[in-house]
Specification:
The chain is 71% helix and 0% strand. The protein has 119 residues and is an all-alpha fold. It has one domain. It is elongated, with a radius of gyration of 20 Å.
Length: 119
């Protein structure tokens, strides 16, 4: 097992998980921070999911090749367990945010130009 290659693959998988969390749960906050329109917000979401899929797919392939390749002497110093625990923490964060989004209060719809507020 070539640990450096596996570690790089796991890093890409972690980056993909974090992109999925950002794109899924925080795209509205990011869009508000940069004053993006609704279409730009949707594009931000789509690009986030696309790049997460690309990073995750490449990370899985890289980690699989690292498992198949023979080890090198310089791989003895490489530790894989910390990045594995970080991936587990990212998955736990995703499921926590998913569960809390079901229990959260409903968000009010954004007003469109020309809409009125009745008090």
């Amino acid at each position: 097992m070539r640990k450096r290659t596996v570690r790089n693959g796991l890093r890409l998988i972690l980056a993909a998980l974090l992109l999925i969390v950002l794109a899924s749960f925080y795209h509205v906050g990011i869009a508000d921070l940069f004053s993006l329109s609704d279409t730009a917000e949707m594009r931000l979401y789509r690009l986030g999911i696309f790049w997460a899929a690309a990073f995750g797919g490449y990370g899985v392939v890289l980690a699989a090749f690292g498992l198949v390749l023979s080890a090198e002497p310089r791989d003895a110093q490489v530790r894989i367990l910390p990045i594995f625990f970080m991936i587990l923490a990212a998955v736990a964060l995703f499921f926590y945010l998913l569960a809390s989004s079901f229990n959260g209060p409903p968000r009010p719809e954004r007003l469109q130009p020309g809409d009125t507020i009745t008090i």
